[in-house]
């Protein structure tokens, strides 16, 4: 016979130890597993089988107890040892923990049997020691480690020490480990495949789950990683439902190259977001789409300034817009962009339909051309004096003061905004949308839409002024490179004018969201369309774009409700990125003021009927008075009374007349809130929320539950009723706040542990002020919702965003102040300009100046 063993294999220890005791044959080294070559030429590959064979060769016989132990070691203990080795990361040096992976009952039984068989210092027969050797070899990798914690089985280590001191075991270990100790075992185990868990038909018991940990194959690990990378499946697109109120919602597409300021945000995306969140709570089937407007000269010029391609500029600033709107919690169903194949496809389709039906004209246009820049100037890259109202900063397409559309060549004293040179007039052939030919059809549609839908007064007035003056053909092509190509062969060197194809972006963005986009955009009988914008965008949405769709004669969905805001100014001036005046979207986060507070204040002063102005002092006042002292104070007190006086459970409520009166007041405010938001009067509806919390504060103050809780049974019951009613009012406020302050709304519901559906139940079709938190309902931990804005903090922010440093430097120079004083202020100005450049993604270091000619 020949015995083959490998270095570092703990199973070889028991085979060699058995060999030593039997004295049958010498061993030969082989680098795999213990193998016994029998005289017959056959092999034994099981270490336990080898041990038992050698027992027979030595003319000894195994007892029943010994056979039981060998079976248990082979079927259970070996698997547990190897599993534990991998799960405890022994190969990386992790110390073994207490042996919880060993079934305490079994191992105690096993060790007890070994103790009975093993007679210390007494000559013993072979079969009595065999079980000790087999178990000891199996546990050798664990119990040989001095760092192993024995835990609640101290007799285990004592037994193992006795076995290890057997001469046969010492000799076998020395030969197998080759003097390397545990390092030899690590080398062996590193070469072994990851063990498989035993399959079973029934789930493991609780105790088994605690005692064992799963071991997975590399294939299982890779499969899990691949599944994880896929992420959540994309939500199924919102589809149109017959018989439901289907609302299609858009907010004006922001120019991609402009970082939106607070006025842009409240005028378009934030106002639309409030209405979208409200509509979803009401149970409408609502789709809210928006995206960046990416074509045009503005993008070309921005790319030139930053040394990038137009597409690179679009990619860069599209990401900026996405980050800003995400921080402001704008809940678009889809936020896309206009530089897509679908945009080209749909724009060109509408163009050809207009062309085929005779609604396009050819004409030669006189345009302003900058000789210095060597290009035709787009409307927004030329400024001058308005020919109608004499406003000195009118753009080449529209005057922001009087609101009238103009042609750039009509401007008095025009200037190129890029180089400040005076442009010249040149001729170029272009295509025009024949608005006069569509005027009658447009007026019929407008009469119906403005009378049946919700159009803001400014939207109606601006549209009427256009019609009153009579419509004129509108140019739809431009001499540019960056834009949607005009498909007509005679105009292949031109692109569509941005105000022709930008509104078509609503359609293409929806088409990129769902293949069923036509069910939304070619279905005026079943879809209500809301457009949100600032007032300067009104004529393009109420006249130019509707005429394009009417002329295409493809059953397009036209706007039913056009919601336009006035302008939001900054303090006593206009927002200006170049002058560092005002808060822009990418800066709001850095103020440390939560986005919900920004949302609240912007919506509180939303310019619905006239222009309004952002004011730091007023923002602090509204935060500290309306949010902290009114709304937050009421909700916090109601929750704290439940926690402090009623062990965190809503008390029983026995309503009296005063309670019923409060409930009636709240119901009236809720009704007003719904009526106002249905009419898109967003600012006024917000006041209803604050009115309810004022009623609640007064109700608590008059009833003094903190005093009544200390009185008799009647007083304690009264305190419970006031507290229960108040905490239900707080729950109602969480629902009403959801469109305005979504994070605060969720925080209130979390603190009150309110049902997930309470908001939709309150604001749904059949909703109202309901007792949502009944007696016995447990609430969570209550904490303050808002923080005070300190005057020092506000002053610092006002100074930071005031853009006043340049004015200060100019004033010092005009006063001929000392040079050192002027230098210090100039240094501050340069630092502010560097900060501004970094915020805009530009190089903060100024370009090197060319030397002066001598």
TrEMBL record:
Keywords, sorted A to Z: Aminoacyl-tRNA synthetase, ATP-binding, Cytoplasm, Ligase, Nucleotide-binding, Protein biosynthesis, RNA-binding
GO biological process: methionyl-tRNA aminoacylation
Reaction equations catalysed: tRNA(Met) + L-methionine + ATP = L-methionyl-tRNA(Met) + AMP + diphosphate
GO molecular function, one term: ATP binding
A GO CC annotation given for this chain: aminoacyl-tRNA synthetase multienzyme complex
Family, per entry: Belongs to the class-I aminoacyl-tRNA synthetase family.
Name the UniProt record assigns to this protein: Methionine--tRNA ligase, cytoplasmic
